[in-house]
Structures are given as C-alpha cells and as structure tokens.
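Practice problem: predict the structure.
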Amino acid sequence: MISALLMLRRFALALRFALREEDFARILSAAIALVLVGTMVYTFGSGWSLVNGFYFAVATLTTSSIADPDLTITDAWLKVFTAFYVLVGIGILVEIARRLGMGFIAARKDMAEAKAAKKHGGSEAS
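Answer:
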C-alpha cells in the first residue's frame, strides 16, 4: 500500500513538471479528445454501451490485447477507422509517456538537490 502511494506521489510530481512544458497540456488534451472520439465511434458504430466503447478505445490505443472477445468490429469503415486511430493514437501516447518520463527525471533531480541542500545546510550549522 505504501509503495502504491509513493508511486502515485512520484506520478503526480512528474505530471506537475510535465505540465510546466509549453505543449504538454495540448498533447494531453489531444489524448483525451482521442479517447473520447474513439469511445463515441465504437459506441455508436458498433451499437455497444458507452462503457464497452470506452474499454475498446483504450484497449486499442494501448495495444494491450486484452479486448473482450465479445467486442469485435466487423464493419469495413470501423476497421479503417481503427487503423488510423491506432497510428495517430500511439504517437500521441508515446509523446505523453516521454514527457512524463522527462518530468519524472526533473522531479527526482529537484528532490535530490533539495535533499543535498538540506544535508549541506544542516552540516554547516554544526
């Protein structure tokens, strides 16, 4: 439980650093819009529930291969949509992961510098 909380804290710090970058909010917005578009297309195009459309959109974008075997697309236009959806979506998600990774590195560096400054400042007082 503690490790999960620490991981969540590190993720929040990385997100905070990433959000300071000029384009990150736009890229994150594009990813959210992409998931929403995919959810709507799969929901209405296949006649699925909103939850199933969302699940399929996320499973497709993350290439997780955990899609429900009952959720299959058979219409040719949905297959073409899915091909372009994956090509565009993977690029956006990789860029988000890259920027979050850079944010994680920056946050870790800041924490190490703060720790060193505290340690250095504490040893001078002795």
